[in-house]
Hints:
The chain is of the alpha+beta class. It has one domain (17-143): CATH 3.30.1330.40. The chain is 22% helix and 31% strand. It has helices at residues 53-68, 96-111, and strands at 17-20, 23-26, 32-33, 36-37, 75-88, 118-124, 133-143. The strands form two sheets. It has a five-stranded mixed β-sheet, covered by helices on one side. A two-stranded antiparallel ribbon has the order 3-4. Helix 1 crosses helix 2 (96-111). The radius of gyration is 15 Å and the shape is globular.
Amino acid sequence: MNKNITQPIPQGLYKPAVRYENLIYTSGMTPRKDGELKYSGKIKATEPIKVYKDAVCLATKNALLSAQACLKKDEKISLVVQLTIYLCATEDFKHHSKIADYASNFLLEKLGLCSVGSRVAVGVSSLPSNAPVEVMLVAVVGKY
């Protein structure tokens, strides 16, 4: 485990991420900082999509930090095999993939083009603590 990376604070009885051989699975991460939810409420069709960028990026950052905390000194995330974005949205919201693009773009910026894998964006009626978004990922470990 990389002791230099501060993982998000779990909100229940679970680990932020678990490594099995060369795969890292993260728990679902909401837009929290220091254990405090920074964004809440449903994603609304009446709001511009860019309103939700910071929430999605913070949740994605938390997932990435959780995965990176499982790395050894000479390792890196070489590929995000699966990125899952849960969006707590109103029933009339239809642009899930556009909001999920914020998560993909965040990872692209942090890890590079070769790291981008498959993705799913799922609309749900509620998320823990009334979070607007929850992000989880599965990553492959590579060497520098």
